[in-house]
Amino acid sequence: MNKIILTASAAAIALAASAGYAAARDQIQIAGSSTVLPYAKIVAENFGETFSEFKTPVVESGGSSGGLKEFCKGVGENTIDIANSSRPIKESETKACADAGVTDIQEVRIGYDGIVFATDINGPDWALTPEDFYKALAAQVVVDGKLVANTAAKWNEVNPNLPDWDIAAYIPGEKHGTREVFEEKLLAEGCEATGALDAIKATGLDDKAAAAACIAVRKDGKAIDIDGDYTETLARIDSNKTGVGVFGLAFYENNADKLKVATVSGVAPSTETIAAGEYPVSRPLFFYVKKAHLGVVPGLKEYVEFFLSEEMVGPDGPLAEYGLVAAPDAERDAQREAFEAGKTM
């Protein structure tokens, strides 16, 4: 792969000039999305084995929002080099980065993942829709044309085809990128499909406030935020055999002996249905690179190149074996070319 020629920014010059910077930290620091975490760990371990001259990168979780918050704290040895994310960086986060001196950010899309909904392996089959999620978990629902507090207690109250189980949904906490996909592709769509969006707007709220009301989750214990990673969600289902959990496809596939996955709008989640764009709850996965650290933190450029190599993100690589849905050939090539060209956001 061709070497990258970058114009050093003032921030990079200042960083490199810091006495003993590289010697003080000669190991790549990464944090963020729990969904991207296992993929980044696989790449980091392979990188450490392949490049003996560099230390194996340190990869931690913390959620997409948590990782980007750390990433945007500034430039220097006490700040991370890469933020993993299961959603695109927000405009407010880009501004926070810029305010702290992180002005050159490179977005890297690594592939795709699906969000799945699973129950204990011994439970019945589930077929869910965005309307079901909204009616079960929204803070307010429409009853007889009026917007009222959600009091549904069982899943078969919102859809008679669902089990006679108490509603207990273990959903990603608000710091996780998965939560935003859950809100956008299920709650928001279910809100509109059930007519709740029109009822909310009829109360006088503007479009922005109405959209926020649509994704508001009930706080009576039926929807439980999980701030940890998917292992915590799995533990909750293990202790409550009638609970429903939200997972990334890869985590589910690696625990298929314990979990039964639901269809969404009639489509079963798989690498094939996600790659074909058929499964409705899928999303791209990213990481963000602090360009001021390229050429300063040993191995950072090489790590990104290695991550983007066919050996890692191709359809026959270890990430695909773990569950990542490889991007199309042209998209993978475009990501490599963009990084080589040093294109920033």
Summarize the structure in words.
The protein has 345 residues and is α/β, with parallel strands linked by helices. Helices cover 40% and strands 19% of the residues. The chain is built from 17 helices and 13 strands. It has helices spanning 10-17, 21-24, 37-50, 63-71, 91-99, 130-137, 155-158, 177-193, 196-201, 207-214, 230-239, 249-253, 271-275, 300-307, 310-313, 318-322, 329-341; strands at residues 29-32, 58-62, 82-85, 105-120, 127-128, 140-143, 146-149, 169-172, 223-226, 244-248, 259-261, 263-264, 282-290. Strands 1, 2, 3, 4, 8, 9, 10, 11 and 13 form a 9-stranded mixed beta sheet that branches. Helix 6 (130-137) crosses helix 8 (177-193). The two termini are 22 Å apart.
Write a concise synopsis of the structure shown.
This protein is α/β, with parallel strands linked by helices and 345 residues long. The protein contains 17 helices and 13 strands.
Largest sheet: 9 strands, mixed
- Based on CA inertia axes, which overall geometry fits? globular
Q: End-to-end distance, in Å?
A: 22 Å
- Along the chain, the helix and strand elements come as HHEHEHEHEEHEEHEHHHEHEHEEHEHHHH
| Number of continuous helical runs | 17
SSE-based structural type: alpha/beta
Mean pLDDT: 90
Radius of gyration: 22 Å
Low-confidence region ranges: 1-23
**What's the total number of strands?**
13
Q: Provide the helix percentage.
A: 25-40%
Strand content: 15-25%
